[in-house]
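Q: What structure does this chain adopt?
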Amino acid sequence: MKQSVTDALQQQRVIVVAVDPDGGHVTIKGATDACSVVACSNGTLICCDEGTSQNLDALNPGDIVKIEGPEGRPERIVVVRRAWDELTSPEW
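A:
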């Protein structure tokens, strides 16, 4: 069966569950509700409306992100929607 655009987007986007800036790890939850941990390097870029940073403090639990790069070792984490924007969404 062919995947719809909406389904494809949901598969690519994950929710940040926890951020460990000192350890360089981000715990994420995917479309299957399974959590996994990704290890970020000093070169991992965090891209969001506020700018681009290599600091994991730019991520918050509840943020919806898209991870780019090899599985488990992201090169870029793109913030698609902030946690506080999710709560004010008209979809609610």
